[in-house]
Amino acid sequence: MDVIRKAAGARTGRPAGCCAGKKIILLLMISLLFASCASVQKKDERSVFTVAELINQGDSGALFRMSKVPFLLDQEIILLKKDIETFWSNIIEAGYTVDSPVLEDGQAIGKDSYLRFYDSMEVKTFFKKYLPEKTRMLELKTTTNQRILLLVEKKWLTRRIYGFKGPY
User: Fold this and answer.
1) DSSP state of 30
2) Is the pTM of this model over 0.85?
3) Cβ neighbours for 116, distance < 8 A, ≥ 6 positions apart
4) DSSP helix/strand/coil, 29
5) CATH for the stretch 40-165
6) Domain ranges for the chain
């Protein structure tokens, strides 16, 4: 470290150590930023794969337990737990699967995120009133080019599903 400080002082004419510490701190901050971005993407990918795997395994019970009330299905707000349970059971019974999902996009919800689900006052209100601050909108793409949007919050060792749109 002393070598860096001496070199910095010699090149700039400033006292040794004047800028080296700031540069090191800046490099550490940039490294942490990149590490946190990679961490968020990994969490998003795990969320996508968890939901897809449960669908493919036909585990409507686990999907139901992960789902929160109210639940946004395409443009409809589902207010009853029984209706959410019926949704997951019906798509499993219909043989719906998610083939080789890939995370296409993952982002924190923002002011206009609701537009990706549907442009209505009800959906806008759902986003504003019912979604926790750390909810992420995840878009996955399958090998058949179908897309699915998920509203997911990572909570401790589990995930909470607040919405599902697709396939489209």
Assistant:
1) H
2) no
3) 137, 139, 149, 165
4) helix
5) 3.10.450
6) 40-165
